[in-house]
Amino acid sequence: MNSFPGMLIVILLPIVAIGIVAAIRYALRAGRGEALQKAAAGMKFTFQPQADPRLVDRLEHFHLFSQGRRKKITNVLQGRAGEIDVSVFDYRYVTGGGQHSRRWHQTVISFESDAMRLPSFTLRPENLFHKIGQVFGYQDIDFDSHPEFSKRYLLKAENESDVRHAFGTDVLSFYESDQKLSTEAAGRQLIHYRAAKRVPPNEIAEFIKRGVRVLTLFRK
Questions:
Q1: Residue 13: in which H helix or E strand, if any?
Q2: What is the pLDDT of residue 219?
Q3: Are 89 and 74 within 8 A, CB to CB?
Q4: Residue 93: CA atoms inside 13 Å, Cβ hemisphere, count?
Q5: Strand ranges (DSSP E) for the chain?
Q6: Is 18 helix (H, G, I), strand (E, B) or coil?
Q7: Under 8 Å between Cβ of 119 and 157
Q8: Residue 128 pLDDT grade (very low, low, confident, very high; cuts 50, 70, 90)
Q9: Of 53, 32, 70, 68, whose CA–CA distance to 204 is shortest?
């Protein structure tokens, strides 16, 4: 009987540890939300802790939102610049299972406007699996004029001719200067993010400026 308290401690310790980790995660999320809410107010943006379901519906056709499961959009900042609706938000999802599961967190900026007519494309950093896939016919649009871009990025499109026209020298040089960016577009929408990277609240304004820079390059 003397061993019972010891056994109880062994059983309870993992439960307590899990509870502590959960509490820490909650506190961090709450702190991030409050900081982003202040950032939104400073930029005259609205703020919502949870996304309007209509936002999720409008983005589900993009590659980023087709990945994994347990998808969730939080900390949504929204504003309008002229004729363009701007949304900035945290997006997370889970891939794999069991001990091999992985949570992906990133901050995304989305632009929407009926005045935009962008070609449909997906641009993201190229990895080893993409390179292997190309041997078996996996699409990747390359540019002889910018070998570094072609080496570092995977570019897929519905209409290759339209996308080649959209990816001028300025666009290609921009992505060569930062080789870990992801951008997707389709008609009246464009999203921009860095995979698995959440932007700190004090860098949100700069993140928006970079997103506007991307949009401006493609709208030329």
A1: helix 4-42
A2: 87
A3: yes
A4: 14
A5: 46-50, 69-81, 84-95, 102-112, 118-125, 153-157, 182-187, 189-193
A6: helix
A7: yes
A8: low
A9: 32
The pLDDT mean for the chain works out to 86
* 160: DSSP letter: H
The structure tokens 């993201």 sit at: 124
**Considering only 12-21, 141-150, 175-184, which range has the smallest mean pLDDT?**
12-21
CA distance 17 to 82: 50
Neighbour order of strands in the sheet with 153-157: 46-50, 69-81, 84-95, 102-112, 189-193, 182-187, 118-125, 153-157
Q: How confident is the model at residue 74 (pLDDT cuts 50, 70, 90)?
A: very high
Number of H helices and E strands in the chain, helices first, is 7, 8
Q: What is residue 118's predicted lDDT score, i.e. its pLDDT?
A: 97
- Per the structure block, which two tokens stand in for 56? 């999720």
- The two tokens of residue 118 are 């962008």
Amino acid at the residue 36: L
C-alpha 112, offset from chain centre: 16
Q: Does the predicted model carry a pTM greater than 0.70?
A: yes
Are the beta carbons of 91 and 55 closer than 8 angstroms? no
pLDDT of residue 29: 56
Only one residue has tokens 């087709």, namely 66
Query: Which of 37, 25, 30 is closest to 88 using CA atoms?
Result: 37
CB-based contact 168:95 (threshold 8 Å) = no
| Domain ranges (residues) in the chain | 1-107
